[in-house]
Amino acid sequence: MIRTRFAPSPTGFLHIGGVRTALFSWAFAKKHHGQFVLRIEDTDLERSTPESVQAILDGMHWVGLGYDEGPFYQTQRFERYAEVLQQLVAGGHAYYDYTSKEELDALRAEAEARGEHFWYDRRWRPESGKTLPEIPADVAPVVRFKMPLEGSTGWDDLVKGRIDIANSELDDLIIARADGSPTYNFCVVVDDFDMGITQVIRGDDHVNNTPKQINILQAMGGALPQYAHLPMILNEAGAKMSKRRDAVSVVDYDRQGILPVALLNYLARLGWGHGDDEFFDMAQFVAWFDLKDVSPSASRFNQEKLLWLNAQHIKATTNDALAELVRPRLAVRGIAAAEKPALADIMGLVKERVQDLNQLADECAYFYAKATPSEEELAKHWSDEAAARMLRFADKLEGVADWDAESIHALFKPFCAEEGIKMGQLGMPLRLAVCGTGKTPSVDAVLALIGREEVLRRMRGV
What we know:
Its EC number is 6.1.1.17. By secondary structure, this protein is mainly α. The protein has helices at 16-31, 50-63, 78-90, 101-113, 184-194, 210-220, 250-255, 260-268, 282-288, 303-316, 319-332, 343-350, 357-368, 375-381, 384-398, 405-419, 423-434, 443-450, 452-461; strands at residues 3-6, 35-40, 69-73, 94-97, 142-145, 152-157, 161-166, 174-176, 199-203, 226-230, 233-234, 299-300.
């Protein structure tokens, strides 16, 4: 059984790099009829907050990446971590280190003075024939893992290819702090072991953690999963994305009016591709997805491309579904969508004109409440004569037998001939009189949807 996992730390929001990692892990599991696990790595008690946990759960729900198991919380597994710690110590794979903070600071200062990287000198590491220092009474020990001293640790990365790290570059890392709390790299290994994770798909900022985790897992007697390290997502300037400069939280994209499927579609194309295919839904993505098609190079985020994809998904979404998405955005604008015109009917008229749900809400607003015309549009298209003409055309509209776009359109040509004007001299003032903006779809279709009574009220109230 293929089992993948997404394991975010709840120290902030769910960012788009995390969403892409979750997407690829989810898709790999679905492609192979496996299971996708959500794990919350909340052992950083100072930075992890309930609000951040909820932000992750809400974000996963919003993008629609359902998980088969979880969420599991590391803070609920401390007894298990303590059990494995004791097993590693008893088996000679880990040891207690009584080095004081002052001693470590001195070692660090000496390394800096030599211009060298700081390494723990393994003074408390048990070795054959080695005499350990006397255990101090006033120092609570940490637990360190005994990394191999020779050779190398390597793996065949499903994205980056073969990676080998010399064991001489691996420090004896701390796997439990002096207060007994387990550390990140240790908890990850125990969790992956217990949860039967077969493929670890994560960001390439974890490459340096992988040899450490491999050695711990081998000491536990566990089978190694396959590892796949995904390349970084850069912003449009080619720099690492940051909260200060970029919209990096999924909540930001919701506020921007991006559809979840459009964001997933776009993130799927960051570092992965299927020929020239750009627009697809998640079922198609799962069918196509293979980790061998993921590029090991960093990808650059392009907001314009995201908006283009969002527009395509808006067009492909049913009018009824769009109406439910737009309704709360209208409410924020102080507009309550009435029964008539039906919001879904408006969708069919305006969704081809927008790139995001906020624009879609703006396009719907004037169907329920006339906008205030801009000074520029009034100066260009409005006059006393235009106002008088609107009253004359209102009389024509009032007498039309069938209130539909075709019947309304049939009035345009004879009225313009009667008035001695071109269609633009009727259409633009008519839009301003009824909608309050000159930027609308075909005016006959707009009037037909707004309804005879409301159209005449607005025209005669200008």
